[in-house]
Specification:
- This is Amidophosphoribosyltransferase.
- The chain contains 16 helices and 22 strands.
- It has helices at residues 14-24, 52-55, 58-63, 109-118, 128-138, 144-151, 197-202, 238-244, 256-270, 286-296, 319-329, 353-363, 396-399, 402-409, 419-426, 447-453; strands at 2-7, 32-38, 43-49, 68-74, 89-93, 96-103, 160-165, 169-173, 182-186, 189-193, 205-209, 214-219, 222-227, 250-251, 254-255, 277-280, 300-301, 304-306, 330-332, 341-346, 369-374, 413-416.
- It has a seven-stranded antiparallel sheet with strand order 3-2-4-1-10-9-11. The chain has a six-stranded antiparallel sheet with strand order 5-6-7-8-12-13, covered by helices on one side.
- By secondary structure, the protein is of the alpha+beta class.
- The protein has two domains: 2-233, Glutamine Phosphoribosylpyrophosphate, subunit 1, domain 1; 255-453, Rossmann fold, CATH 3.40.50.2020.
- The structure holds guanosine-5'-monophosphate, iron/sulfur cluster and magnesium ion (MG).
- Residues 178, 237-239, 383, 385, 387, 389, 432-435 line the site of iron/sulfur cluster.
């Protein structure tokens, strides 16, 4: 999911800024979206299924009138795709009303659900966000800082949360720091966002990342930052670096485009190939392919032409639809590879559906050899923190070793980037690498809980 919040005392139209910000965060979720706004006295919310571009009319945006707003684009990992699960969610609490937007996924959802039931509340959605909202609203005491410091201690997993009250914005990042969250300034106010690309779009200036366990309060006279939860490390999701976030965003001081290019360079150092041409699987594989080509001194060529009007194929529900989706999305220029030794670089292999199709399409162009290079390690374990890398059984690398995958894909050679090089390019000491077989930073739910609540 993607979140954006803005508070700008001199304006009345920040819902529009939020709209454009959500546009730039669209890659983080295409299922539903929403904007909440306040003029200081009452909160209005507008939510819709589908893409930002078709979700709001000019008039609807004008009606979302006020100096502060909160927006969300949703990608579901827990909870079904439905309008009820669209965010921001609206909650009543002792002090009035708040709107809530969440990025991440809570691991101890069973426990939270029981706590919510024991308060006499029946949740009306299947999402973990609603549970957090009820627990915060019902256990509200004194102020947000005290409440969040107490209640968030009980949340295990990934949560970047942003609240909009009738007057203020509060943003919290979980103590593990799984999902990104940063803040910036805009005119006489401040903004928070999942990614910096949203700042560029509206012309806001980056100030800082919100650190694990920190809360930021933004109000009419400025902002304050408090460490409300004890930090558990900096387990920023490495998949944000590899695939999920936009390449033009900056995370922990690094432009993701550069990190991805570096993945490609390190991959070339680890697993070089003697070949005639390097091609990428656009768009996500392109920076790494360029890095790979430069380091190997093999020319890079655009071979797969992408249909711009097709969304992320991964999002589609069934295997069959995903397969069809790949053809719809990418079409190769056959002369460029005919008779050549080709290296194809992609950012990740998860289920293997895309990759197998890509290889099949490439062979139809009659190259001499195909070498597959993946600019991330083997995805062997499921993610419980908000990226839909599929359940364990669907993961190619959970049932096959590298030689079996090579055979399955039908390529002359196959190599993945090592975990060590992944960490080196990311540049933080312990990013989360759990889906690549490293330890999970938190406890993980039992199979039974996963089936029931995921
Ligand atoms: P596969 O070969 O496993 O079917 O798909 C790998 C491709 O899916 C890569 O090109 C990757 O960029 C793309 N992809 C699209 N959406 C997602 C997503 O939500 N998560 C991951 N991990 N990869 C995705
Ligand atoms: Fe990211 Fe993988 Fe960790 Fe999930 S398990 S948070 S996808 S690195
Ligand atoms: Mg891709």
């Amino acid at each position: 999911c993607g979140i954006f919040g803005i508070l700008c005392p001199s304006r009345k139209d920040v819902a529009k800024h939020t709209y454009f910000a959500l546009y730039s965060l669209q890659h983080r979720g295409q299922e539903s979206c929403g904007i909440a706004a306040t003029d200081g006295t009452s909160l209005m919310i507008q939510r819709s299924m589908g893409l930002v571009s078709s979700a709001f009319s000019e008039r609807e945006l004008q009606e979302l009138y006020g100096y502060a707003a909160l927006g969300h684009v949703r990608y579901s990992t827990t909870g079904r795709p439905s309008i009820e699960n669209a965010q921001p969610l609206k909650m009543r609490y002792k002090g009035g009303t708040f709107a809530l937007a969440h990025n991440g996924n809570i691991v101890n959802i069973k426990e939270l659900r029981e706590q919510v039931y024991s308060l006499g509340i029946s949740p009306y959605t299947s999402s973990d966000t609603e549970l957090m909202g009820h627990l915060i609203a019902r256990n509200f005491q004194d102020d947000f800082k005290t409440t969040l410091a107490n209640v968030c201690k009980g949340f295990i997993g990934a949560y970047s949360l942003v609240f909009l009250t009738e007057e203020e914005i509060y943003a919290v990042r979980d103590p593990w720091g799984f999902r990104p969250l940063c803040m910036g300034s805009y005119e006489d106010g401040f903004v928070v966002s999942s990614e910096t690309c949203a700042f560029d779009i509206i012309g806001a200036k980056f100030i800082r990342e919100i650190s694990p366990g920190e809360m930021v309060r933004i109000h009419r006279n400025g902002y304050e930052v408090d460490q409300i939860l004890e930090p558990q490390g900096n387990f920023l999701c490495s998949f944000e670096y590899i695939y999920f976030a936009r390449p033009d965003s900056v995370v922990m001081g690094k432009r993701l485009y550069e990190v991805r290019k570096r993945f490609g360079e390190l991959l070339a150092e680890e697993s070089p190939v003697d070949a005639d041409i390097v091609v990428s699987v656009p768009d996500s594989g392109t920076p790494a392919a360029i890095g790979f080509a430069q380091r190997c001194k093999i020319p890079f060529n655009e071979v797969f032409i992408k249909n711009r009007y097709v969304g992320r194929t991964f999002i589609q529900p069934t295997k069959e639809l995903r397969e069809r989706g790949v053809r719809l999305k990418l079409n190769p220029i056959s002369e460029l590879v005919r008779g050549k030794r080709v290296v194809v670089v992609d950012d990740s292999i998860v289920r293997g559906t895309t990759s197998k199709e890509i290889v099949k399409m490439l062979w139809e162009c009659e190259p001499k050899e195909i070498h597959f290079r993946v600019s991330s390690p083997m995805v062997s374990h499921p993610c419980f923190y908000g990226i839909d890398t599929a359940s364990r059984g669907e993961l190619l690398a959970s049932k096959m070793d590298i030689e079996q995958i090579r055979e399955f894909l039908g390529v002359n050679s196959l190599a993945y980037l090592s975990r060590k090089s992944t960490i080196e390019a990311i540049g933080i000491e312990y990013p989360c690498l759990a889906c690549f077989g490293a330890d999970y930073p938190t406890y993980i739910p039992s199979e039974e809980v996963r089936e029931k609540y995921a």
